[in-house]
Structure formats: C-alpha cells, structure tokens
Amino acid sequence: MIDLQLLALLLIPLTGGLLLAAFGSRSWAAELNSLMSFCTFIAAVVLAMRVIDSGPQVAFNEEFFIDQFNVFLVALTAFVAFTTSLFSRPYMRIEQHHGKLTTPMLHLYYSMYQMFTLAMLVALTSNNMGIIWVAMEAATLTTVLLVSLYRTPASIEAAWKYFILCGVGIALALFGTILLYFAAERVLGEGGTALLWTHLNRVKGSLEPTVLKLAFVFLLVGYGTKIGLVPLHSWLPDAHAEGPTPVSAVLSGLLLNVALCAVMRSKVLVDGSLGTHFAGNLMMGFGLLSVVVAALFLSRQKDIKRMFAYSSIEHMGLITFAFGMGGPVATFAAMLHMTVHSLTKSAIFFAVGHAVQKAGTQQMENIRGMMQVSTTVGWGLMLGTLAILGMPPFGVFASEFLIITTAMHDYPWTTPFLLIALGIAFAAIFGKVQPIVFGETTARRLPHQPALIPVFAHLLLVLILGLYMPPYLANWYRQAAALLGG
Amino acid sequence: MSYSIQIINLLASILLLIAFAMLSQRRILSLINLFALQGLVLSLSTFVVAYSTDQRHLYYSAWLTLLLKVLVLPWLLHRLIRKLNVKWDVETLINIPTTMLVGIGLVIFAFNLAAPISQLSESITRGLIGIALASVLLSLLMMLTRRKAVPQVVGFLAMENGLFFAATSATHGMPLVVELGIALDVLVATFIFGIFFFQIRETFDSLDIRHMEKLKDD
C-alpha cells in the first residue's frame, strides 16, 4: 500500500514531465502543468496522512524511507509547487506577451518544472544517501537551464555561476557520501544496504567517529552550497535575481529546504555516532554567520529580487542555526520556520513578479506606487514583507520567537548577534519596500489578469499558523522533532 | 595479490601525475586528451581492484568508466571544441609555477587529512584515499584558476574522476544503482555544459568567462 502511494507521488511528476516534453508548446501546457502539480499535491497529502497515522515506513525494498520529518517537507514541497504553477500560468503568459519569452522557452520551462519537482521528491523520500546525492544533482541540472531562460547576458552568467559553484559543492558532498560509505561498509558489510539511512541509523553508535567527522564536514560544505550558507552563497542572489520569478520562488521556497533535509539526515548519524554536539556546533556556526552576513548585505541591494534572495540566505541561516542547537523546542521551531518561510517567501516572489512586470524593471528605485496601480499587488507585497520580517501576528514571528528564546536559554552569547541581524534586516527591507508600495506610480497595465490568489492563500496560512497552531500539526512537528533526536 | 596492490599504487600515482599535468596544461585539446587518459587509468585501476577482490559489480563500473570517460565524454568534448572553433585555444593568463606550488600544498594537506582514515582501511588499497582527495582538490584548483569555459568543465569532470577513484579504491565501489545514477548525472551535465557553451558564445562572442563577472553587489 505504501509502495503504491509513494509510486503515485513519484510517477505523477514524471508523467507530467514527459507529457509536457511532448506537448509543452501547446496553448494548454500551463493548465496541464497546474493539473499535474495538483495531482502531486493530492498524492503527497495522502502519503502524509498515512505516515502520520502509522509512523515511519520503508518502501521498495527499503530504497525509500518516509517518516514524519521528510513527509512534512514532501507535503510542503508539493503544495508550494502547485501554487507556484498556478502563479506561473498568467505570469509566463505576460512575459511572453512582453516578448521576453518564446514558445520553445516555455516548452522547456514546463517540462523542467515537473522534472524539478520529481528530483526534489526523490531527494526527500530516498533512503539511500547515494541516491539523495544523485537527486540533488538532478535538481541542479533541471533548474540550471531555467535560470538562463531569458538568454540575457546577466542570466547566462548567473546560470553558469550556479552550475559551476553547485557542481563543485555537490562534488564535495559526494566525497562526504563516499567517506560515510567507507565507515558504514566496515560495520554493515559491502553491498547495497551500507548506504541506506535506516540501516546507518541503527548502527550509528559503532561507526568510526574520525571518518564520520570528516564526512560531515564535506557533506555540510557540499549541501551547504545548495542551502546558500555563507560563505558558499554567492550563486544564490544571482540565480534568484536573473531567473524567471516562478523559478526564484521554487528555488527559494523549496530547493533550499531539500538540501537542508539532506544535511539533517547526516547530522542525526554523525552526532549519534560521536555522542557529542560536533555536527550541531558546525551547523550553528554556519547558520549564525549566514544570518549576520546576509543581514549586512541586505541594505546594499538595488535589485528587488536580489534583496529577497539575501533574505532567503538569512532565513536559511536561521533555520540551520536552530536545527544545529537541537532539542525539542529548537527543532520544532526550525520546522515551523521552514514552513512559514517557504510560504511567505514564495508569496513575496509572486507579488514581486507582478510588480516587476508592471514597472518594467527590477531596480527598486524605479518601482513606485504599487498600491495605486493595483491594491492587491500592493497589499500582497506589503503584508508579505511584514510577515517575512517577523511582525506579529504572522507565523514567522512565532517561529523566530521560539528560536531566539531557546538561543537565549541555551547559548546566550548568540542572542545579540541574532537580534541585531534581525533588526538590520527589518530596517533595510522595510525601508525599501515602503516607497515601492506607496508613493507615485509610473507603472503600466498588464495584458493578462495577474494571479494573486496564491499570494493571499499563502499569507493567510502563515497568519493562521501565527495565531493558532492546529493540534494535529503541532503533534506532527513534535513527532518529527523527536525523530531528529530533539 | 601483492602484485595487484603494487599495480594499483602505480596507477594511483599516475593519476596524481595526470592531475598535475592538467593543472599545467594551457592547450584545450591536450587538456581533453589528458582527461581521456585519466579516465583510462581510472578504468584500469577499477579492473585491477575488481580482479583482486573478485567483485562482480566492479567489473560493470570499470566498463562503464571506460565507455563514459574514455570514449563518450572525450568524444563529446572534441566535437564541441571543433564546432565552437576553439580547438587550438591556448590559455595564457595562468601563472603555472605558482599554481603548481599551491597544488603541492594541496597534496600535502590532502594526505594529512586522509592519514587517520587510511589507518583504518582494511581494504587492499589503504592510503589511496589521500591520493583521491588530492586529485579532487587539484581539479578544484584547476577550475578556480581557469578563465575559459571549456577548461573549467574539464576540471569539473576530472574532479568527478577523483571522486570515482576514492569510491573504488577506498570502499570497493559504491552500490551499482548509485554509480549508475552518478554516471547519468555526469552525462546530462556534460550535455547541458555543451548547450551553455553555445549560449555563452552567442551572447558574449567568446568563451572567456572574464566577460561574465558583471553580477556583483554594489
């Protein structure tokens, strides 16, 4: 049964990718894309409910493993992928109308969109550390041509940087995986089972600590490049700013989470093996550095998508930091923050996408008075910004509050850094978004009705999470935190 | 048995030597030939490990290496540089003596890092993980120092060779399904790199990535 449910989850995006590779240039390709994403979402919900009811499961000869932690990311990924496909339908048509995209480019976009979803879902559900690596690399490969979709010099440069840096990063992660296998082989014997996470987790106490330490450094640096941790982040702002906005939304909202999931899988093994807090400390260090550096870079940005890309680095740093602290509360808060960050950040990118289309530029000083042009875009941008900056009553406030109070209790020296960084980020982003929303406008009308339902749906969910956490969800997160050794 | 250990050690040192040769090679065509040679050495060493440990799946990965890294990828790269008309391109802007010195430093670093791990290895090829790590780092250095797109990609592929060597020498090979996945990724990546070469050339009129340093935070 679980086999079938998982098969559905993976086969739907695969079918979607193949169908769209064949029919991606038809006029109904966007609708087909949304339909396949919707079906994937339904499959994810079915799988999630099943796992929450009956606990962690393995499938397909133990090659796949689903527990409360990764099924939470599966559900989140499928949901945001679905809403982004809804947003991209009118967005990409407007881009085509403006002459920035041609039908063959859209064809590539639609089929790669589904393949990217597939790669992320495989990376999340695979039990094999080697296959996780293969799927992470596949996720890069499917998005790299999307970043250069516009074929402008800047977008090609961004895509090249993305490809080379993530390629190098992911190669280091492969070395880490090889070292992990090297340690595991001595305990589990040669053959297929020595890379299966469930088996590794069972014997983690007897894995060789020196090897695992080194393996984790490589894995963290490798997958950390993908998460966008400072100082390995330099591809991220470029790729987010130059790629099409739906791609920025899924990169920021989803891919970074998937990479972090791979790091967490490794952390559980390594800290379990060492019996110390080595992996957690490393994650805290990288996380804190990312929060502080990204906050400092925020105020220097002129490009609106670049600014929100730095904000993603900041929030991924915060999540990595919280996972690094460990313990039930911090892990719970990190997962909540992952959820609300994904929802809010993709909502912001949706609103930003339409604002940029109306203004005809990504330079913030030339985008003015969105409220006058369209109250929905204006409010979407304003509320999204307030939410991401951690204003109550949005959910980001709740998760940041939990993270900071835990940090205050367990690692008091980190609190001033976190608070100052969040303060700087607030001043930088709010100061720049405020004149964009209010003020005199210079914008134009769009040839298609923009899709803003996803923006408000996301923000509503974030608001609800901030005001009231449903017990079902809280219980789910708590179970997942317990699995991560919280 | 001891013969195979010596052969593998010999091949490992040749591998490291090729990594250094690539680091100092300015001509694109020679670089691709060196890459093919590296693939050949890699596949030979995999055959020897397979023979001496009697691992069936290692034979498959040795054949796979031979096919992919000695035939398909070099052929693709040759075709690309012919089409792009950069066959006789020479990279002038690298300071080879300094690069070599940094390279030697990296080898020492890699050996030190791998020393405690080599102690643990019960496999016939203990100590080779240091060489593998060294060739990964040397390829990384090559990617950093190059200012042209094709050599960067050759560096990327050479890095993957070093990783593959680590997998076969230190652990007798990863599970076959993982190796197949990695091979597929590398192949697809090379195709995408090929697409990129044309996009870059079309946009910048050159494959020099110095033109692509415009995106900065100001």
Structural class computed from helices and strand pairing of chain A: mainly alpha
Cross-sheet strand order for the largest sheet of chain A: 1-2
Largest sheet of chain A: 2 strands, antiparallel
Number of strands of chain B: 0
Q: Sheet with the most strands of chain B? A: none
Q: Uncertain regions of chain B: pLDDT < 50 for 5+ in a row?
A: none
Shape of chain B: globular
What tags apply to this protein structure?
heterodimer, A: 486 residues, mainly alpha, two-stranded antiparallel sheet, 78% helix, 1% strand, globular, B: 218 residues, 7 helices, 0% strand
Report on this structure:
- The complex is a heterodimer of chains A (486) and B (218).
- Chain A is mostly helical.
- Helices cover 78% and strands 1% of the residues of chain A.
- Chain A has helices at 2-23, 29-54, 68-97, 103-125, 129-147, 153-188, 197-202, 209-227, 235-242, 245-274, 278-298, 304-325, 328-359, 370-373, 375-388, 395-410, 414-437, 453-467, 471-483; strands at residues 57-59, 64-66.
- In chain A, helix 1 packs antiparallel against helix 2, helix 5 (129-147) packs antiparallel against helix 10 (245-274) and helix 15 (375-388) runs parallel beside helix 18 (453-467).
- Chain A is globular.
- The model of chain A has no long low-confidence stretch (mean pLDDT 93).
- With 218 residues, chain B is mainly alpha-helical.
- Chain B has one domain.
- Chain B starts with a helix and ends in a 14-residue tail after the last helix.
- At the A-B interface, helix 5, helix 6, helix 8 and helix 9 of A face helix 4, helix 5, helix 6 and helix 7 of B.
Quick description:
Chain A is an all-alpha fold.
Topology:
The complex is a heterodimer of chains A (486) and B (218).
Chain A: H1 2-23, H2 29-54, E1 57-59, E2 64-66, H3 68-97, H4 103-125, H5 129-147, H6 153-188, H7 197-202, H8 209-227, H9 235-242, H10 245-274, H11 278-298, H12 304-325, H13 328-359, H14 370-373, H15 375-388, H16 395-410, H17 414-437, H18 453-467, H19 471-483
Antiparallel strand pairs in A: 1-2
Helix pairs in contact in A: 1-2, 1-4, 2-3, 2-4, 3-4, 3-10, 3-13, 3-19, 4-5, 4-10, 5-6, 5-10, 6-8, 6-9, 8-10, 8-11, 9-10, 9-12, 10-12, 10-13, 11-12, 11-17, 12-13, 13-15, 13-16, 13-18, 13-19, 15-17, 15-18, 16-17, 16-18
Chain B: H1 2-24, H2 28-53, H3 56-84, H4 96-120, H5 128-145, H6 149-171, H7 176-204
Helix pairs in contact in B: 1-2, 1-5, 2-3, 2-6, 3-7, 4-5, 5-6, 6-7
